[in-house]
Amino acid sequence: MMAEAEAIIDAHHHIWRQRDLPWLVGSMVPRIFGPYEAIRRDYSMAEFRAEAEAAGIVASIYVQTNWRPEDAVREVEWVECAATGDAWPAAIVGFCDLGRPDASLILDRMHAASPRLRGIRQQLHWHENPQYRFVARPDLMADAQWRRGLAAAADRGFLFELQIFMGQAEPACALLRDFPSVSFVLAHAGMPEDISTEGFAAWREGLARLASYPNLATKLSGLGTFLHRNDPSMIGRVVREALSLFGADRCLFGSNFPIEKLWTDYRSLLAAHLAALAYLPTEVRQAVLAGNARRLYRLAEFGHSRTLSAGALP
Fold first, then answer.
1. Which parts of the chain are beta strand (E)?
2. Between 3.20.20.140, 3.40.50.1980, 3.40.50.1360, 3.30.420.40, what CATH number should domain 4-312 receive?
3. Model confidence at 4: pLDDT above 50
4. pLDDT band at 6 (very low <50, low <70, confident <90, very high)
5. What torsion, rounded to 10 degrees, do the Cα atoms 296, 166, 246, 33 define?
6. 241 and 275 in contact (C-beta within 8 Å)?
7. Residue 63 contacts by C-beta under 8 Å, 6 or more apart in sequence?
8. Among the ranges given (25-29, 46-50, 213-217), the one the predictor scored with the smallest mean pLDDT
């Protein structure tokens, strides 16, 4: 049985039914994670849980998967129905278009649908390469209507998962500065898409600017997105830089499964992250692997609260 000190929480994963996701039906189109035929199918909580538990994971956090925007509430309802026990998932990060005039009403309906709802992710990443763009403008986060939606989410106790490229560091820093009481979590360590000497330096410079705001944490996740492989050396490099800038109390592990399943298995991915963290003292490493996720996503407050150790899981 895994000791409590070794517990690991996966703070970023997905499950889905193919029919609910427009991007997983019809013809494949170029995407940042490359060819994705292998995941154009249902990916259930049972399948994810089997892979994660076999690697020693004790709980998980579900992150939205781009259902149709009008189905934001249905997505949360479906994940609640798909949940298996308190820990799978222990928390949900849903989607809401915060620029909608009725964003507050959507947020209230989502909150009513799920006691596990802890945050909102609306992907804001924009890049000079059109293939990497998700939104039409790099500074959507500066829009007044969108910011009213963010304030409404914060009023309901939700954190915001910020997914951007480091070329958007300037408007992101303004957002962090203007909402100092909101908890933000940076997705995928700021998505280092260019690991050339110049590209990596630019990524680190942007990350350093963001890390200066104490209301931002970062996920050590999705690091194979642009390489399309599990690269322990690159993961180690990114993890060390993130830890040096944010500190271990603002970094947390996530698998980004099943996206990373395109090029690796769960055990190998986790092993690469554990190797990158091996130089840390046990208690510091445990904060990255579980403690920070518990705190940021308020897992101790969840539903029928149980200790998140392997022996206490359903």
1. 8-13, 57-63, 91-94, 117-121, 159-162, 184-186, 216-220, 251-253
2. 3.20.20.140
3. no
4. low
5. 60
6. no
7. 12, 13, 14, 93, 121, 161, 254
8. 25-29
